[in-house]
Amino acid sequence: MRSMNPTRPSMPGSSRERVPVRNAGGIFSAVESALDLIFPRTCAGCGTWDVSLCPNCAAAFGPWSEISMRLPYLCHVRGKSRRGLAFPGDEFSRFPVYTLGEYKGERRRAVVHWKNTVDVSLTHAMSNLMYRWMREFELLDSLVYNREGELTSLHVVPAPSRWWRSHDGRFVTGHLAGAVAAALSESQGLEQVSVENALVLPSRFSSSNLNGRRTKTRRIRLRSRFHLERPVILVDDVVTTGATLAGAADALSSVGVPVVAAVALLAAPDPRKGREG
Questions:
Q1: How far apart are CA 46 and CA 14, in angstroms?
Q2: Half-sphere exposure (Cβ direction) of 234: Cα atoms closer than 13 Å
Q3: How far from the centroid of its chain's Cα atoms is residue 78's Cα?
């Protein structure tokens, strides 16, 4: 298995290397281009002039870290032993989750700005950032393979979001999923990789409390027109407790589709740390 912490890739900014991103907002893109002529652009992370994401803020993302064991909604206690793997009572995670840093500082400011504005240039910068880190990361080396020892095709599924985010160009997990799929298909020899916006959030819930997160976990569902047949990699922007990923995995497993891993830009601090000691 290759190292999970690769040499830091080159940062976004080159006009020669662009990954395809989803429609970034239609008329909003035209309005944004017009506003660029009037109002100066600043870095979403630190405020540096004339750039959407400066090299210093882009360099704050990475390397990859596996954080699944600190996500309470993904952790379980093993009920029976599996020979050679674990003893009964050991805690384990449903699947690995990889992120590019903590949700704080310039990284947090950049992602918050991206999620709450329609900024085509920042969308390209963040998508390129994910694409380049994914190209350097031998993710498939750490996954579960089929009986022949191969994993030749995947679905990349973005975490569900509110319908209006897709409508107005702020469906950031969709942009990230496109970057992940492009990197996997180009760098890791997969025969078929497709992005499938297959999951839907419950129509009403509040994620600000425990009951809201439980509702979200239970009620994420698969869109009726989708018939997924290949293993899935989930993609999110920020992981907090793992509730969204757990709900997405439940919806997929209900139709026999396994989730083999999840990737995200950032992870919030461990929500259980404040209660320790």
A1: 20
A2: 31
A3: 27
87 contacts 81 by C-beta, under 8 angstroms: yes
**Domains of the chain by residue range:** 27-271
Nearest to 123 by CA among 165, 81, 90: 165
Residue 188 burial (10 A CB sphere; 0-12, 13-18, 19+): middle
Which regions in the chain score pLDDT beneath 70? Answer: 1-39, 77-90, 142-150, 164-167, 202-218, 271-277
What pLDDT, in 10s, does the model give residues 18-68?
454 445 445 555 555 665 656 678 999 999 998 999 999 999 999 999 999
How many angstroms separate the Cα of 115 from the Cα of each of 122, 171, 192, 252? 10, 8, 29, 25
Model confidence pLDDT, tens digit, residues 228-239: 888 999 999 999
Q: Give the H/E segment covering residue 156.
A: strand 153-158
pLDDT recorded at residue 92: 80
